[in-house]
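User: I'm putting together notes for a lab meeting next week and I want to include a structural view of one of the chains we've been expressing. I don't have a solved structure, so I'd like a prediction I can at least talk through. The sequence is below, exactly as it appears in our construct file.
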Amino acid sequence: MAELKITLVRGLAGTKPKQRLNIKALGLGKVNSTVVQKDNPAIRGMLKKVHHLVKVEEA
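Assistant: Thanks for the context. Below is the predicted structure for the 59-residue chain, given as structure tokens.
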């Protein structure tokens, strides 16, 4: 199964509470923090909600 490299590129100021929870659930904290997650439908759904805050690459 493929993996995704997810980087937080924008701050969370002014975002909705559910978007903040999604960022936290993905394992991201500060701007420019990066995590590697497995590519599955749950992660894809989270990324769809916060696509404007993150950068996603194939790992």
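A couple of points you could mention at the meeting. DSSP finds two helices and three strands in the chain. The beta strands are 3-8, 34-38, 54-58.

User: Perfect, that's what I needed.
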